[in-house]
């Protein structure tokens, strides 16, 4: 584990928060689209059918490309990012929240979501543990939280693609606060409230990313609103 790095990422600086979402002011390259496709493929392994589910996509990106495909079949979709496309905000099935993470989640009801996505987001926030605590709090008993982050092995490849080849957005790489191998991510998932028996962490995308599957099982301590 890299404890000093993770702890530094938990300190919020005086620097201004970002004001644009992923994909808002640029066109995704084939490298970006391939990465999004790989993440979506992994997500659909664990969420093959979202009919009737309450979905939350935290840090969904301007166009919310994955969650957008579920809007007409899920019971409700909550989209959270600093900025969202106008048509998403107008959709009757979408609960759109614009703001910075994790603070933007404070008004979401505890235990109100059956599935939460947090894809390529944790590396951009200064308070990762607080964001994960919010994921745990808003997840309903029996729900699933899926997390994707770049690994330390992926750091070099991502920066080479962005800074040397120009195939990834430089601004996104410069906004990274930390990278996570499974041994980095697992402890902060536990700190956030997820039980070790309900966490699975593994590398994917050719080892360039870490993926986590976290479940919140129903226990005697779970009340109707999902708060222990």
Query: What's the helix-strand series?
Result: HHEHEHEEHEHHHEE
Tell me the number of helical segments per DSSP (H or I, 4 or more residues long). 8
**For the terminal residues, how far apart are their CA atoms?**
29 Å
CATH architectural arrangement = 3-Layer(aba) Sandwich
Q: What's the number of extended β-strand segments?
A: 7
Q: Which whole number gives the mean pLDDT?
A: 88
Question: What fraction, in percent, of the residue positions are helical?
Answer: 25-40%
Please mark out the parts with pLDDT under 50 across 5 or more consecutive residues, or reply none: 1-11, 223-228
CATH topology: Rossmann fold
In words, what does this structure look like?
There is one protein chain. The protein is globular. A seven-stranded mixed beta sheet has the order 3-2-1-4-5-7-6, with helices on both faces. It has helices at 3-9, 30-46, 65-68, 86-90, 128-138, 152-165, 170-174, 182-191; strands at 54-58, 76-81, 94-98, 113-119, 139-150, 199-204, 209-216. The protein is built from eight helices and seven strands; from the N terminus they run ααβαβαββαβαααββ. With 228 residues, it is an alpha/beta fold. The chain has one domain (3-7, 27-216): Vaccinia Virus protein VP39 (Rossmann fold), CATH 3.40.50.150.
